[in-house]
Amino acid sequence: MKFLDQLRQAERQNSSLLCVGLDPEPAKFPHALRGDASKIYDFCAAIVDATADVAMAFKPQIAYFAAHRAESQLERLVAHMRAVAPQVPVILDAKRGDIGSTAEQYAIEAFERYGADAVTLSPFMGFDSVAPYLKYHDKGAFLLCRTSNPGGDDFQPQRLATVPGTPLLFEHIASLVQGPWNLNGQLGLVVGATYPAEIERVRSLAPTVPLLIPGVGAQGGDALATVRAGWRGTAEQTTGLITVNSSRAILYASADADFAQAARRVALQTRDQLQSARYI
């Protein structure tokens, strides 16, 4: 099944727009696991088990695993996701952005080693940094477009005088992903929840590509504004997919033995907020 079909199916089956981000920090683990990097798999697997019927996607952030030499735990975790939540696609948050044979190796890492359904990429080296991932015809890729960090203002809203119409940089990226770059039909865009006006602008330029939207939860993005800006569809059919990521608010909802149950409660609350916002 192609990535976008997986994403649509998960939206319907779990009645969800929620992407559960997996950014494991051993220093923030519940008391019984705290500080033990060998327990990254155990912690994340418990979160996956608790949210398997709530999530539209899972998004492990590779740096949180690699920093603790836990890549083998990430491989085990993706296999566990396949076993307990086969309906939920896995987005590897890696933000790769190289070219040529190096990009080819990163694509192998994401899609063959870890078995991800999609990956996040930086587009700033141009199309040849994206092309190797498109050889995997059924796999997806989300390109950074208008990110939620304050430093995104350094480049993303600057005008491109050499491009007809002098669009802003993030607008140009959105147009490329909607159009000539999207050779396999599986590309999407990363747009931060802290910029709902920019989400709406990106959606107008890229009406049919999926949006991965971080920033709801601990980062303070507004769920209602986010969904109204980015989601498009009816009760019967979605024409503009979004998956809205929350990480820390779910992962660290409790520091006690009930951490997985607490994570489920927060995930359910967030899922329901996002769902209800679709028709307000």
What does this structure look like?
By secondary structure, the protein is of the alpha/beta class. Helices cover 40% and strands 16% of the residues. The protein has a single domain, classed as TIM Barrel (Alpha-Beta Barrel), CATH 3.20.20.70. It has an eight-stranded parallel sheet with strand order 2-1-10-7-6-5-4-3. It has a two-stranded antiparallel ribbon with strand order 8-9. The radius of gyration is 18 Å and the shape is globular. The model has no long low-confidence stretch (mean pLDDT 95).
Please summarize what this structure is.
With 280 residues, the protein is of the alpha/beta class.
> Care to count the β-strands?
10
By CATH, the superfamily comes out as Aldolase class I
Q: Distance N terminus to C terminus?
A: 32 Å
Class based on secondary structure composition and strand pairing = alpha/beta
Q: How many structural domains?
A: 1
Task: Note the total helix count.
Answer: 11
Task: Note the main attributes of this structure.
280 residues, alpha/beta, two-stranded antiparallel sheet, 11 helices, globular
Helix/strand layout:
Layout lengths: L2 H11 L4 E5 L17 H12 L5 E4 L1 H5 L4 H14 L6 E6 L3 H14 L4 E4 L9 H4 L5 E7 L22 H10 L8 E5 L4 H10 L5 E3 L9 H8 L1 E2 L4 E3 L1 E5 L1 H4 L7 H19 L3
Parallel strand pairs: 1-2, 1-10, 3-4, 4-5, 5-6, 6-7, 7-10
Antiparallel strand pairs: 8-9
Helix pairs in contact: 2-4, 2-11, 7-8, 8-9, 9-11
